[in-house]
Write a structure and sequence with these properties.
Structural class: mainly alpha
Oligomer: single chain
Distance between the termini: 99 Å
Order of helices and strands: HHHHHHHHHHHHHHHHH
Shape: flat
């Protein structure tokens, strides 16, 4: 627990790191230090309780000062659920909202002050605004803190409130959009500064609107940012590169930027959303967007390769068509059948490696932040594993149907969905054929080289005369006459 920097009055932090096996003296010192820190921590808690008791006594207006236990009971979950928002009249609320409207229209950069004012009114005064309740209740009532029938005055209040929060929403979304543009934030805001600011803006949006709407708007902003990165990286490739070379270099350039965006995004969403919602957000904004953009670009390159490679094959096949003029002529078939070159296959291999590295980075980031399902397995596993788990759950659902009513429903398990492999589906036959051709070519060349080497060696053996060379006398056996 990293509380020592935030709570300076807490003293229950003991350094337990010891090198080697602790001796009896080390254990006694550790126990003594622990007892001392526990005593200091108890004194700190007692002092804080006295301060809380004094503040509650001041608010009790001369009545009996409550005990520390009674003060703590005020913060129990049962007492907090009893609290109700302050009821406000329609006319008072309408006057307040119209004053906010005039301030937003008259003053520039006044949105921050109004947001701060609304947050203080909600937290300190207990006034509940419409989005403090779920979206379902918001649709059926003009304001949760008003129990009067819906009339013209209530409609005016609703209209004024919608106008105020629409202006504030535009301001916050504009701030978030500026922070997603690297050209405007690079060099001005570091990652450590951008993450808290993004969390703060999202929290203010969640105060004004339901969570579903806020995440839809934020998803749209981030999808535009991801597409901008991919398209900019494709457009900045030198003009000499084209075809699958251009596609591969573009994704290799975009991969570090996407990893940085993903790392920052996970830290931002970790402050405002639950893990399964973060995984769903990453799937929709990043992984699906990359897969769709890759599919569009891959289709364009396949069409280009189909024209180029088919043209070359038709030029090479003119002579053979003249010789086979007697054969029956079939009408040309409109199919996406062509042959890949070894260079194109190498580019596709490099593109696949880049996407696999991006996939591994996303899995590592998600696993590092502890996105685990209830079984303790990473939700970043493949779809087949998740499908197997779901099939087993469906089989056992009929047997345990009576028991599920007594157990609270767990959060839906969401896994990372990497759909970029679908973009290569149309090229699988061509890639397989190209691999076969390349392997055959390599094997034939090696075989020809081996045959040439073997033939050259045989000729050397036949032509070269055998010569007897004698070494020094001591190295040869001595001739003994019989």
């Amino acid at each position: 627990m990293d509380w020592q920097g935030d709570f300076l009055n807490d003293h229950a932090f003991v350094e337990l790191q010891m090198e080697g096996i602790p001796s009896e003296m080390d254990i006694q010192n550790l126990i003594r230090d622990t007892e001392e820190k526990l005593r200091l921590n108890a004194c700190s808690i007692e002092q804080n309780l006295k301060e809380l008791q004094a503040k509650v006594g001041e608010a009790s207006s001369g009545e009996r000062v409550p005990s520390p236990i009674e003060c703590l009971q005020w913060f129990s979950q049962r007492n907090l659920s009893i609290l109700k928002p302050v009821a406000t009249g329609h006319q008072e609320l309408l006057d307040f909202l119209r004053a906010l409207q005039n301030s937003l229209k008259a003053e520039d950069a006044f949105e921050e002050a109004i947001l701060h004012l609304l947050l203080n009114i909600s937290t300190q005064c207990g006034v509940a605004f419409p989005t403090s309740c779920p979206a379902s209740s918001e649709e059926h009532s003009s304001s949760p803190n008003l129990s009067m029938p819906c009339d013209d005055l209530a409609l005016e209040v609703r209209k004024a409130w919608d106008d105020v929060r629409f202006s504030l929403r535009s301001h916050l979304l504009r701030k978030l959009q500026m922070m997603t543009e690297p050209s405007k934030t690079e060099g001005e805001l570091s990652v450590g500064t951008k993450v808290p600011q993004k969390i703060f803006y999202l929290q203010q949006l969640l105060f004004l609107y339901p969570e579903t709407k806020v995440f839809i708007w934020y998803q749209q902003l981030q999808i535009k940012a991801v597409l901008s990165v991919l398209q900019n990286c494709q457009s900045c490739i030198p003009g000499g590169q084209k075809g699958f070379d251009r596609l591969t270099l573009g994704f290799q350039t975009a991969s570090p930027a996407l990893c940085s965006m993903l790392r920052e995004e996970i830290h931002v969403l970790n402050g405002v959303a639950e893990p399964h919602k973060i995984i769903a957000f990453l799937n929709h904004v990043y992984l699906n967007t990359v897969a769709q953009e890759l599919g569009v670009l891959m289709d364009k390159e396949v069409e280009t390769a189909l024209k180029d490679n088919t043209t070359h094959s038709m030029k090479g096949g003119k002579m053979s068509s003249k010789k086979s003029a007697v054969a029956p002529q079939h009408p040309p078939q409109r199919e996406r059948s062509f042959s890949l070159t070894s260079h194109q296959l190498r580019c596709l291999t490099q593109l696949t490696n880049t996407l696999l590295e991006l996939e591994q980075t996303v899995e590592d980031l998600a696993t590092h932040l502890g996105f685990l399902n209830c079984a303790g397995e990473s939700v970043c596993s493949g779809k087949g594993v998740l499908k197997k788990v779901r099939d087993e759950m469906e089989v056992t659902a009929a047997e345990d149907k009576a028991a599920t009513d007594l157990v609270p429903q767990s959060t839906e398990v969401v896994c990372l969905e990497f759909g970029w492999r679908a973009a290569f589906r149309a090229l699988v036959p061509q890639m397989a054929h190209c691999v076969k051709v390349v392997l055959d070519d390599v094997c034939n060349k090696n075989l020809q080289q081996e045959e040439a080497t073997h033939a050259l060696g045989s000729a050397d053996i036949l032509v070269t005369p055998v010569t007897h060379s004698h070494g020094p006398e001591r190295d040869s056996p001595r001739m003994v006459a019989k």
